[in-house]
Amino acid sequence: MVKKLFIVTLALVMVFSVTIFPLQKQGDKIILMASDDHAWGYPTVEGLDVMAKLVNMWTGGRIEIKIYPSAVLGSEKETIEQTQMGIIDINRTSISPLTSLYDKLNVLALPYLYRDRDHMWNVLNGDIGQSILEELQQVGLVGLAYMDSGARSFYAKKPIYSPDDMKGMVIRVQKSELMMDVVRALGAKPTPMAFEEVYTALQTGVIDGAENNPPSYLETHHYEVARYFSLDEHSMVPEMIFMSKVTWDQLSEQDRQIIKMAAQAAQEAEIKLWLDQEKAALKEVQDAGVTIIHPEKQPFIDAMEDVYKKYGAKYSDLIEQIQSIE
Hints:
Layout: H1 2-15, E1 24-26, E2 29-36, H2 43-58, E3 63-68, H3 76-85, E4 90-94, H4 105-108, H5 117-124, H6 127-135, E5 141-147, E6 152-156, E7 170-173, H7 177-185, E8 189-192, H8 198-204, E9 209-212, H9 214-219, E10 228-235, E11 239-244, H10 245-248, H11 253-287, E12 291-293, H12 298-302, H13 305-312, H14 316-324
Parallel strand pairs: 2-3, 2-4, 7-8, 10-12
Antiparallel strand pairs: 1-2, 4-11, 5-11, 6-9, 6-10
């Protein structure tokens, strides 16, 4: 019911696009709505909870962040649009669906871009990553901080040891041209699909596989219907906490700084939670009978040549800067 109400509201906003949504208040208290498509207990949601508690504490209860997990406000695409319009105040999604709004983000999602996790965080917390957060204001969003989502790998109803095993397979991807081209480069057919629809699609044979990180694979119970997890680790796609510029522009400078600092603290908390949950997730699915595969990565890397030509040519200097960071 809540989701349907927000979709109807969104449709009205698109008709009356000049509408500016004022800050939601209860007396003198500002109420901010935060969205996440994962459930309570998932690291990103727990990170948002840390952010909410810090904002509440640092403002003496004057600002309250209400978290709506489990995609209750809509799919990632729907909530991003609502955040642009000021219906949702704070959002946490992967950067993949944001690439359609801001092309430069494709660079951060390129396959095998980072040497390891430390390299990724040096990029994101450095000048390059922080500049990109600022630049999102061009599309009606204010980047606050990044979150960890580990490395994404393929899971399927049959083993994947090499790109040859993927030929002809139908693989679910996020609504991202980059991810669709990655799958095509490996010889499979990409099918964009909402996150919450994947289990049934795997169960009924509409798709042969998908790609995600270990905690998501466990949380969604996809391991029940796709019993082979191939750790090709094709991409480390960061998550992002961002805010509606409509909301941001109505806040005082002091409140903006508080929210930014709380988001950065949420990032630190989420990274620690992520590492623990990733390790535990792999053990749990393996104990449940999933076959964990460690494929030779070089054939997958070699298949990405055309992907880099298409998405990297425009930002070749930026890619070189990223690769030169220690």
